[in-house]
Amino acid sequence: MLILMDPKAGEGDVQAVCARIESLGFTAHVMPGATSTAIGITGNTHPIEEDRFAGLAGIARCIPVSRGFKLVSKEFRSDLAGRDSRVQVGPDPTCGFGAGMFGVIAGPCSVESREQILASAHAVKAAGARFLRGGAFKPRTSPYAFHGLKEEGLKLLAEAREATGLLIVTEVKDTDTLDMVAAYADVLQVGARNMQNFSLLEAVSRTSRPVLLKRGMAATLAEFLQAAEYIAAGRRDQPWQDSIILCERGIRTFETMTRNTFDINAFPVLRRLTHLPVIADPSHGIGIASDVPAVARAAMAAGADGMIIEVHPDPRNALSDGAQSLTPAGFEALVQQLRRLGEVVDRTIP
Ligand code: PEP
Ligand code: MN
Question: How far is the CA of 296 from the centre of ligand 1 (A)?
Fold first, then answer.
């Protein structure tokens, strides 16, 4: 349930409502807005009857929220007055996603060597990216495939950050390696295969890092939002409102011409349901390098708040996902197109 307070309600009225919520054994989330305060309630397993709040002053309206996600829902950020959250990473306010800011993350699928990651970092920075991606712990379908350089890969990412100022986005594969990955990463990526790894979601929620949560390849949008809710719910004492980024990366369908089917519907639907920023991964979404720019442009036009794109200095010899990786020149051309398109669809690439 969400309680909307009257614009004339005072601090004491808000306190009294919170005390009632806590006395019922639930948790109150106070969200002061420009004109009035909203109070969200979590922790209830059944709908709460409105008469539980009878006799309390200053309540304008009680809105039932019966979905499995609340903190990430649009209603729970009535303080934003219809705007969306912006996830800022680090101290620079132009490094972020959402509310008009279009964040660009680029780099190779995997960190392969010092030369490869440094060349990638310099190239994507020159083209306009603010974030460097690169997996050090790679969840791969085959046990015989390249699984990443592990901590050595994380150290190379840190070196690339030092050399370029780019912020690091890298995947955390399991709870065992979470502390290590969190020590190097600026943003923790939870991959499609782990979207419903609830132990990992809970563990990630207890770190102080922003999280990039990818949609599972067979997950509905409702399941996706509930996975994000796990992270928000675990972040009670942290600014959960602005530390989770959703990522549409394509889902499995009967189509075999492409690696996945990029779900463009996700953008308008998620935009309606959640205040969280939603970014696009057109690389995994279609899986074919020459087709990535078309999907990227479509995603921006459909409302994406940013993009994560695989770029490799030598795609043909990449140890993972070379077929979908852009060259640095291809990436630069795409960023130029997105800057032009952003002017039309109200997205700024800083
Ligand atoms: C990746 O980003 O390289 C990756 C493994 O993505 P996903 O989890 O979306 O498959
Ligand atoms: Mn990849």
Answer: 16
Residue nearest to atom 10 of ligand 1 (CA): 192
Kindly give, in sequence order, each residue whose CB lies less than 8 Å from that of residue 300, ignoring residues fewer than 6 positions away: 102, 280, 307, 338, 341, 342, 345, 347
Residue type, 228: A
Between CA 183 and CA 333 the distance in angstroms is: 33
Could you say which ligand is closest to the alpha carbon of residue 139?
A: 1
Asked if residue 272 lies in contact with residue 67, where contact means CB atoms within 8 angstroms, the answer is no
Q: Which residues line ligand 1 (CB under 6 A)?
A: 109, 135, 191-193, 214, 249, 281, 284
Amino acid occupying residue 153: G
Compute the distance from residue 138 Cα to the ligand 1 centre, in Å: 8
Secondary structure of residue 125 in the 3-state scheme: helix
Choose among 317, 347, 311, 346: nearest CA to 332. 311
Q: How far is the CA of 127 from the centre of ligand 2 (A)?
A: 20
Cα 246 from Cα 279, distance rounded (Å): 6
Q: Tell whether pTM > 0.90.
A: yes
- Output the furthest CA–CA distance in the chain (Å, rounded): 70
Q: Which ligand is nearest to the CA of 308?
A: 1
Ligand 1, atom 4: closest residue by C-alpha: 191
Mean pLDDT by 10 residues, the chain (350 residues): 93 96 94 86 90 94 86 84 88 94 98 98 98 97 96 98 98 98 98 98 95 98 97 77 93 98 98 96 98 98 98 98 98 98 96
Question: Which domains are delineated in the chain?
Answer: 2-66 (3.30.70.1140), 87-345 (3.20.20.70)
